[in-house]
């Protein structure tokens, strides 16, 4: 593997580990739709930064911070996506497309912003991804108990005197940072796959949160690395290949779990015999 | 007929059709589901293009498969619907990208399928949109009353002897048909706007369904018309322009109606300005809003009753 391959592998593994471990919180709180919104808003930021000529992560960060500020106050954590976020999700994307189309030969930029290009990441990107991965893991470990309580019972969290709103906003901000960090490698539309797929798979394997978090991180990093290998061998888009592996992992596990349920019911019936 | 004429006709007819069906999407709270359907249609369109078969047939078939997949995933209660939809959404989009990337020089094709190219639509595209329009009008004409009944009172609907699954599948297939004909015009990932924004805008202005439908149709067609004109004059992507204008109509309506409501409530609390208004405890539980549905076709009412009994 050459230099760019090693860089891409490092970036994708860091991103995968971050997304997979944080993803358990996304699944527990049903934030999939909010994550998609964040990605699309970050896309608008990336496009704006590309046009102005500044760092794309800066643009994405500003946009995502705006999205968190807008939606964090609302009932985002309740998991019921409203019409406003439905409009925001597509409106931000559309505005980004309009902006980017004002440039000559825009389809290359559009592709990079939508699905990322892991093979062109810089050393700076990798350093940032590593720092963010360390921070996310540290935060998850430090406030694990509070996060868990707030995810399952917001009222009790408040009654115990924890700053429930601060916890919610903190989690959403962490999510925004993760999506923005992932943007150069896997673009604006694919972080959702790495965030939700491996962690939902892990939660099918185990119902305990700490093992699921570790497993989610490992699965996501593994899928990302495998996606890169596939892409180098078969000349596919690396980020999209990783995302598909994450989705396939979930679907296969789900099918296996269903089959296991069916088998259990069947054998129980056989054991009970005719009544 | 020039390309601009065709684009204008396509955008206006599509806006009208989208406006009609969007009423049902908003009543049933299906924006996220619709988003997943658009993303899931994308790999189908790509596959059809690579295989050289009809885009509409390929995209539609694949979309129907994915819809059935999501429905199957969300039937069990232990599996959260949001997660299932999220996984299908992103994996579907990624599949489309991977398929395209297997071709060389893919970024141009990618932008054509994701954000559309309305200025290259042909007569057959116009015919397809018109046919789907007739389909939507037929569905709303034959089953509009039942769809509304189902949206507002799922329990009563099943108790009255109707079959929820049948009408749900009919609705989803119609939505899928609209998505498929929208792909050449506004692309797969922007189609969700013309399927949600018109009725969401109308819902801000009025609560009555015939009025909502009328305003939604007006919003959709106006957004399409202005979008094409803007795109033609300022040389920006047409699909993006159409969706931005439609989204802007929603944002504008939201601002105006919010300001109006604030003014009315200030006038009501009126002269005794020092007394703050009581907290509105019943926000979101107004009678004209249908109950939140976990997912369309989530579980038949009979099965739900059975599973509750089993839990006890």
Helix content of chain A: over 70%
Mean pLDDT of chain B: 79
Question: What structural class should be given to the helix and strand makeup of chain A?
Answer: mainly alpha
Q: Measured on Cα atoms, how large is the radius of gyration of chain B?
A: 21 Å
Greatest contact pair? A-B, 55 and 55 residues
Rounded to the nearest angstrom, the distance between the terminal CA atoms of chain B is 67 Å
Global shape of chain B: globular
Number of DSSP strands of chain A?
A: 0
Count up the helices of chain B.
12
Please indicate the percent range of residues of chain A in DSSP E strands (runs of 2 or more). Answer: under 5%
- Please provide the ordered H/E string of secondary-structure elements of chain A: HHHHHHHHHHHH
Total beta-strand segments of chain B: 0
Quaternary organization: heterodimer
* Class derived from helix and strand content of chain B: mainly alpha
Transmembrane segments (chain B): 7-27, 47-73, 85-106, 126-143, 179-197, 209-230, 236-259
InterPro entries (chain B): ABC_BtuC-like, ABC_TroCD
Biased composition (Basic and acidic residues) (chain B): 279-289
Family (chain B): Belongs to the ABC-3 integral membrane protein family.
What does the model show?
The complex is a heterodimer of chains A (275) and B (312). Chain A is mainly α and 275 residues long. In chain A, 82% of the residues lie in helices and 0% in strands. In chain A, helix 2 (32-52) runs antiparallel to helix 3. Chain B has 312 residues and is an all-alpha fold. In chain B, helix 2 crosses helix 3 (55-73), helix 2 runs antiparallel to helix 9 (191-205) and helix 6 runs antiparallel to helix 8 (164-186). The model of chain B is unreliable at 272-300 (pLDDT under 50). The chains are: A mainly alpha (275), B mainly alpha (312). Chain B: It is found in: Cell membrane; Membrane.
């Amino acid at each position: 593997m050459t230099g760019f391959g090693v860089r891409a592998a490092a970036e994708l593994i860091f991103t995968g580990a971050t997304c997979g471990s944080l993803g358990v919180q996304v699944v527990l709180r049903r934030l999939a739709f909010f994550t998609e919104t964040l990605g699309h808003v970050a896309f608008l930021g990336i496009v704006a930064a590309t046009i102005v000529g500044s760092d794309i992560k800066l643009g994405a960060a500003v946009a995502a911070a705006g999205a968190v500020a807008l939606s964090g106050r609302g009932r985002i954590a309740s998991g019921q996506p409203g019409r406003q976020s439905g409009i925001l999700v597509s409106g931000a994307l559309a505005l980004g497309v309009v902006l980017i189309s004002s440039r000559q030969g825009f389809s290359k930029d559009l592709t990079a912003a939508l699905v990322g290009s892991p093979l062109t990441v810089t050393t700076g990107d990798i350093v940032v991804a590593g720092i963010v991965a360390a921070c996310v893991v540290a935060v998850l470990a430090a406030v694990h108990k509070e996060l868990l309580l707030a995810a399952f019972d917001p009222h009790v969290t408040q009654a115990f005197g924890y700053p429930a709103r601060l916890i919610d906003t903190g989690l959403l901000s962490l999510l925004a940072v993760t999506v923005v960090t992932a943007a150069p490698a896997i673009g604006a539309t694919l972080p959702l796959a790495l965030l939700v797929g491996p962690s939902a798979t892990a939660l099918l394997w185990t119902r305990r949160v700490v093992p699921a978090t570790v497993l989610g991180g490992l699965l996501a990093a593994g899928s990302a690395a495998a996606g890169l290998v596939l892409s180098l061998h078969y000349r596919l888009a690396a980020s999209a290949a990783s995302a598909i592996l994450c989705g396939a992992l979930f679907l296969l596990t789900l099918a296996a779990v269903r089959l296991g349920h069916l088998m259990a019911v069947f054998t129980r019936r056989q054991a009970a015999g005719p009544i | 007929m020039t390309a601009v004429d065709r684009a204008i006709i396509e955008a206006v007819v599509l806006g009208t059709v989208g406006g009609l069906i969007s009423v049902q999407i908003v009543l049933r709270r299906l924006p996220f589901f619709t988003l997943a359907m658009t993303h899931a249609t994308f790999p189908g369109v790509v596959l059809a293009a690579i295989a050289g078969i009809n885009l509409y047939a390929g995209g539609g078939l694949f979309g129907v498969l994915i819809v059935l997949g999501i429905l199957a995933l969300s039937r069990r209660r232990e599996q959260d619907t949001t997660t299932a939809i999220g996984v299908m959404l992103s994996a579907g989009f990624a599949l489309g990208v991977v398929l395209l990337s297997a071709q060389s020089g893919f970024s141009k094709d990618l932008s054509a399928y994701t954000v559309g190219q309305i200025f290259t639509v042909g007569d057959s595209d116009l015919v397809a949109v018109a046919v789907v329009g007739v389909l939507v009008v037929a569905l709303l004409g034959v089953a509009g009353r039942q769809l509304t009944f189902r949206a507002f009172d799922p329990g009563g609907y099943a108790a009255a002897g109707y079959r929820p699954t049948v009408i749900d599948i009919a609705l989803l297939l119609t939505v899928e048909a609209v998505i498929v004909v929208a792909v050449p015009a506004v692309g797969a990932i922007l189609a969700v706007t013309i399927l949600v924004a018109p009725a969401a805008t109308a819902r801000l202005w009025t609560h009555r369904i015939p009025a909502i439908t009328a305003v939604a149709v007006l919003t959709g067609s106006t957004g399409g018309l202005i979008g094409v004109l803007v795109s033609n004059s300022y040389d920006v992507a047409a699909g993006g322009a159409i969706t931005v204008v439609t989204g802007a109509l929603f944002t504008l309506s939201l601002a105006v109606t919010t300001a109006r409501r604030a003014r009315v409530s200030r006038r009501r609390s009126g002269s005794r300005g020092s007394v703050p208004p009581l907290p509105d405890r019943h926000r979101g539980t107004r009678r004209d809003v249908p109950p939140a549905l976990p997912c369309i076709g989530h579980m038949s009412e009979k099965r739900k009753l059975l599973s509750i009994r089993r839990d006890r």
